[in-house]
Structures are given as C-alpha cells and as structure tokens.
Amino acid sequence: MGTLRSNTSTKTGRAAGVLAGAVAIAAAGLAAAPAASAETTGAPCGPKAAACVDLSAKRAWLMSDGKVTYGPVPMSAGKPGYRTPPGTFAVTWKNKDHWSKAYDAPMPYAVFFTKNGIAFHEGDISRESHGCVRLRHEAAKTFFAELQPGEVVQVVR
C-alpha cells in the first residue's frame, strides 16, 4: 500500500498547472464570461438597465449590456412623503432646461422616467428631493447625453 505524502512542491506545481490551463482556455476564447451581477459590475441592477439607482447606497450608474459604463456617482432622492419609487421604468422624455411648475424650480438636464414627473436632473445632492434623483452637474450632463427615450431605468432599495 502506498503512503499519502504531503509535498508542497507537488501542490504548487498542480496549482500552477491549473492556473496555466485556465489562462489558456480564456485566451482561446473557450470560457464563458460570468453573468453580470452586482459583484461583477458594482451596480445592483439587471443587464437590461441603461441607468441604475441604488436608493440605500445613494449611488447611480449608467450601464450597457449589464456592464457599468459610468459611475457610481453620488445622488440624492426623495424625502419622506415624496419617496423615489423603486421599480423598472423607461425614459419617457428629456429637457435640458426644464422648469418645474409644481415646485417653481429649475431642473437642468432633466431625464424623465415615470409618468408622474420623476426625473434625473442636476441639483443639490446634500438635500432630499420631491422624488427626483438629483445629480451633480457633470453627472447630470452625462446622464442627459447618454440616456435616450425608451431605455430602461431600474431603481432599487
């Protein structure tokens, strides 16, 4: 009967062989890419989302095919009584120089994604909103430029 030996150099050699094999398979294009998830993208939204909002983390991203293309960026959302609704929506329309009649306030770079007026727009992220997702100037410009009507916006808690 043979003896069971613990040989560090043999284990190291096997690990190196396994790693070399994995590298060769990946280089040959034979390995499937992992599915996009919060762990691989940093964003907690699904692969169809063009924009992702995490209300609890107060972060937003732009995405394409499940991969982050911009962000995360800090943001603020709705205050008590005016909470930003979680769910999956679609961009409905955009207005670079929108003025809110309801709140008599500017909403620069507005990208609307609900039927009741919730939008991404430039604003003071140190304060909560009446439901909109406020972004700093550069982020608001980028979201405005990149998002198009019909694209998916996913808002998670």
TrEMBL record:
InterPro entries membership: LD-transpeptidase, LD_TPept_cat_dom, Transpep_catalytic_dom
Superkingdom of source: Bacteria
Pfam families in the cross-refs: YkuD
Keyword Signal: yes
GO function term, MF aspect, one: peptidoglycan L,D-transpeptidase activity
Record-level GO cellular component terms: extracellular region
One GO process term, biological-process aspect: cell wall organization
Assigned keywords, A-Z: Cell shape, Cell wall biogenesis/degradation, Peptidoglycan synthesis, Signal, Transferase
Name listed for the protein in its UniProt record: L,D-transpeptidase catalytic domain
Organism annotation: Amycolatopsis arida
